[in-house]
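Summary: Need help interpreting a holo structure output

Steps to reproduce:
1. Submit the protein chain below together with the SMILES for NAP.
2. Request a joint structure prediction with the ligand placed.
3. Inspect the C-alpha cell block that comes back.

Expected: a single structure record containing both the chain and the bound molecule.
Actual: see attached output.

Input attached:
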Amino acid sequence: MKNVIITGANSGLGFETAKKIAKNKDYRLILACRNDVKAAQAKANIIDATGNDNIVTMKLDTSLLSSVRAFADNYIKEYGTVDVLINNAGISPMRESGTTAEGFEVVFATNYLGHFLLTQLLLSRFSHGGRIINVTSDMHNPPGGIKWNGAEYLAHEALNDRQRYAYSKLCLIYFTHKLDEILKSQEMAVTVNSFNPGFMAATNFSGGHADKARSLVVKTTMPDRYGELESSSDALAQIAADDRFAEVSGAYFDRSINTKRSSELSYNKENQEELWAKSLEFCGIEEN
Ligand SMILES: NC(=O)c1ccc[n+]([C@@H]2O[C@H](COP(=O)([O-])OP(=O)(O)OC[C@H]3O[C@@H](n4cnc5c(N)ncnc54)[C@H](OP(=O)(O)O)[C@@H]3O)[C@@H](O)[C@H]2O)c1
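--- attached output ---
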C-alpha cells in the first residue's frame, strides 16, 4: 500500500487529483484538510466514485506551524512512511488576509511556510522513490514581474494582494530548487517538482470571482496561463503516481505532464539560500 498525502484535498485540484490516484487501490489517500466536515464529505465522495476504501482524513491547517507539527506527529505514529506528498493547499489574498496567531502573513504561511515545515518533518520518512510535488502557479511570475525583497519582508510585512500570492508561489519554486539540490547531493532517492495548474475557474479558489466571463478573458488573452481542472488534475495524478516520472526532479510542470523553465528570478541561488535559511529559522529548526 502506498501512502499519498494531499494537503487541501477537500475541493478543487486536490480533491480531483486524490480521486484520480484513488482509482488504483494500491494507494491510500490521506486528505490533509483544515475543515473536518468538508474533509469527511470529500472522503465519502472519493470512496463512492472509486470503490477505494483506503481514504483517510487528517486535520491540518497549513497556516499554523503548530498544526503542521501535530499533523506530522499523528501521521508518523499512524502510517510511518510517505510515498507521495502533494503540497497543494492554497489561498488567494482576495479571500483571506492578515496575520496568523503565530505572527506570519497568512498567504505566506498557508501557501508556503506550512508546506516547508511539513516537508521537513516528513523528509526522513519518505520511501525509496518518494515524490514531493509543490503546487505553484504561473503567477509566481506576474505580469510586470516582481523583485525579491527578502524572506523577512514576505513573512511579516503587508504587501499588496497580488504580490503576496505571487511571492508565496515563487517561494514554493525556490523551495523546490533548493530541496532538489540537497536531495541530489545526499543521493536520497526522493524527487521534488513544482506543478502549475494554470488559471482554473472550476475550483473554489477565487470564491466565485472566476466566473465564466473572466475565464473566457483569460483563455483568449492569456492562453499561456489558462488551465482546466480536468486536465491539470489528470497531469498531477500522473506526475504523482506514474512510473515514467519516478526519476524526474527539480522540474516545473506547466498545466500538463510537460515541463518548462519557471521565471528567471526563480533560479536565483542567493534568494533560494536566503529563503531556506530564514524558513528554518521561522520554523525553529536547526540547520545540520
Ligand atoms: N484555481 C486557480 O486558478 C489556480 C491557479 C494556479 C494555482 N492554483 C493553486 O492550486 C492549488 C489548489 O487550489 P484550487 O484552485 O483547487 O482551489 P480550492 O478549490 O479553493 O482548493 C484549495 C484547498 O486548499 C485548502 N486550504 C486553504 N487554506 C488551508 C489551510 N490553511 N490549511 C489547510 N487547507 C487549506 C482549502 O480548504 P477549504 O475548503 O477549507 O478552504 C481547499 O481544500 C492552490 O495551491 C492554488 O494556489 C490555483
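--- end attachment ---

Reviewer comment: The longest helix spans residues 161-185. The chain has a mean pLDDT of 95.
Status: needs-info
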